[in-house]
Amino acid sequence: MADARDTCETEQRPRIPIPSAEGIDSGTAGPVHRPSWARVEEIDTFDQFVQRFWRGDISPDEFRRFRLQNGVYGQRQEGEQMIRVKIPWGGLTAAQLEVLAEIAAQSPRGVGHVTTRQNMQFHFMKLEQVTSLLDRMASVGLTTREACGNTVRNITVGHCAGVCPKEAFDVTPYAEAVARFLLRNPMNQNLPRKFKIAFSGCPDDVGLTPIHDIGALANLQVVDGKEERGFQVFVGGGLSSSPRIAQLLEEFTPAHQLLPSVAAIVRIFDRHGNRENKNQARLKFVLDKLGVEQFRKLVFQERAAVEATMASLIPAIELWEEKPPHRDPSAPSDASVEGGGPHYLRWRATNVLEQKQAGYAMVQVRLELGDITPSQLRTLAFAAREFGDGTVRSTNQQNFVLRWIRLDRVRALYRLLASVGLATASAERLGDVTACPGGDTCQLGITSSRGLATALGDVFKNGLSDLADEAGIRIKISGCPNSCGQHHIANIGFYGGAKKFNGQQAPTYQMMLGASLEQGQVQYAEPVAKVPAKNIPRAIEALLRFYQAERHAGETFNQFLDRYGLDRLKVVLKPFTELPPASEAPDQYIDFNSEETFSVQTGPGECAA
Question: What is the reported pTM?
Answer without folding.
Answer: 0.94
